[in-house]
Specification:
By secondary structure, the protein is α/β, with parallel strands linked by helices. The protein has one domain: 3-Layer(aba) Sandwich (Rossmann fold), CATH 3.40.50.300. It is built from 14 helices and twelve strands. An eight-stranded mixed β-sheet has the order 6-7-8-3-9-10-12-11, sandwiched between helices. A four-stranded antiparallel β-sheet has the order 2-1-4-5. It starts with 15 loop residues before the first strand and ends with a helix.
């Protein structure tokens, strides 16, 4: 049976804060995220990289439940907070198709025990469908009975700092909105927490009465960080938090997140396409391409031994402040039809060396192991 058929509240590795299993997010026929799995350990920064449109942001939004996931399971602190049903429905459809094929084969043959075998096939199908329907009911129950206090322990920093802030609300109202929704009514307590978090992110108390348009891009992003931090989350999903900022401001925001990570013990899912930033900031890195996870490894290991052709292509695009190097730098391109032959064997996501996972076929796995070993 699939990994998705495990219990909703299953035993969790004490060191794992978030576990994503076989996550898929479809929008009609578009498979924005296609069957990816990974986990994030407490206190680490997990980088998720890839080109625009590869599914990074959709993954983050699915985890925080801005979308109802299509299939798969999301576990936070050992409890299932997101569950999809498409995989179970597809399993029922495939089982019915297989049953029809087996019955047709029996009817076209001369097997003297075909009646007994047909009855057995029908009974097996009945039990299988009942099990899948039980899983569908469990998923729907988990989605409708998620502990809201648990979900508030996950917060998100959005990519565009101005688009994510309500222009009609003051900074005080924006930052304190989560506290108000949670039921905090003491105005003095709210103000004190707002002032404290403003100072934590490098702003001052006087900023609380101003509106978003009165700030620079870097300051707006700090307001977005403050809005997420005030809820004292255990996990922050940072969706390309520096891509819209100048390079000098990028460094300030990254250093701010790094300080918060160490001072408050926050775990971070860092979504980005700038690999140089991700290398500096992340403990482990997952590389996505067209909705699939193609490689996952520790940061140093990924840069030392990039195995998947797409990962090597991304790394070759990183510019360095060296004119001589840049003049001779060779840009690698990734063309799936050229770089892979999956006509005979299909790729799966597998561990080719300790904690280094790659989407590859059997022959590619052997080649990658030789590269690492050599």
């Amino acid at each position: 049976m699939s990994e998705l058929n495990k219990q909703a509240n299953k035993p969790n590795d004490d060191n794992v804060l978030l576990r994503v299993e076989n996550l898929s997010q479809h929008f009609g026929d578009l498979k924005a995220v296609d069957n990816i799995s990974f986990d994030i350990k407490k206190g680490e920064v997990f980088g998720l990289v890839g080109e625009s449109g590869c599914g990074k942001t959709t993954t983050g939004r699915s985890i925080i439940k801005l979308y109802n996931i299509t299939s798969g399971s999301i576990y936070f602190k050992g409890k299932r907070i997101g569950a999809g049903t498409l995989s179970y429905k597809n399993a029922i459809k495939d089982a019915k198709k297989k049953y029809k094929e087996d019955i047709d084969a029996l009817n076209n043959g001369n097997d003297p025990d075909k009646n007994e075998k047909a009855a057995k096939l029908k009974e097996d199908l009945k039990h299988f469908i009942a099990e899948q329907k039980k899983q569908i009911a469990s998923a729907k129950y988990d989605n409708s009975h998620v502990d809201k206090d648990l979900i508030t322990q996950i917060q998100m920093i959005f990519q565009d700092p101005i688009a994510s802030l309500d222009p009609r609300m003051t900074v005080r109202e924006i930052i304190s909105e989560g506290l108000v929704i949670k039921g905090v009514k003491d105005r003095k307590e709210i103000d004190e927490k707002v002032y404290q978090v403003l100072e934590t992110v490098g702003l001052v108390r006087e900023h609380a009465g101003r509106y978003p348009h009165e700030f620079s891009g870097g300051q707006r992003q700090r307001i977005g960080v403050a809005r997420s931090v005030i809820m004292r989350p255990e996990l922050i999903i940072a969706d390309e938090p520096v891509s819209a900022l100048d390079v000098s401001i990028q460094a300030q925001v990254i250093n701010l997140l790094n300080d918060l990570r160490h001072d408050l013990g926050i775990t971070i899912l860092f979504v980005a396409h700038d690999l140089s930033v991700v290398k500096y900031f992340s403990d482990r890195i997952g590389v996505m391409y067209f909705g699939k996870m193609v490689e996952l490894a520790d940061s140093d290991e990924l840069f030392r031994h990039p195995l998947h052709p797409y990962t090597r292509s991304l790394l070759s695009a990183i510019p360095l402040p060296d004119p001589d190097y840049e003049k001779n730098r060779k840009r690698l391109t990734y063309v799936p039809l050229r770089d892979h032959d999956y006509s005979v064997e299909q790729p799966t996501f597998r561990e080719v060396s300790p904690n280094h996972f790659v989407l590859c076929s059997d022959s590619e796995e052997a080649k990658y192991k030789e590269i690492i070993g050599g």
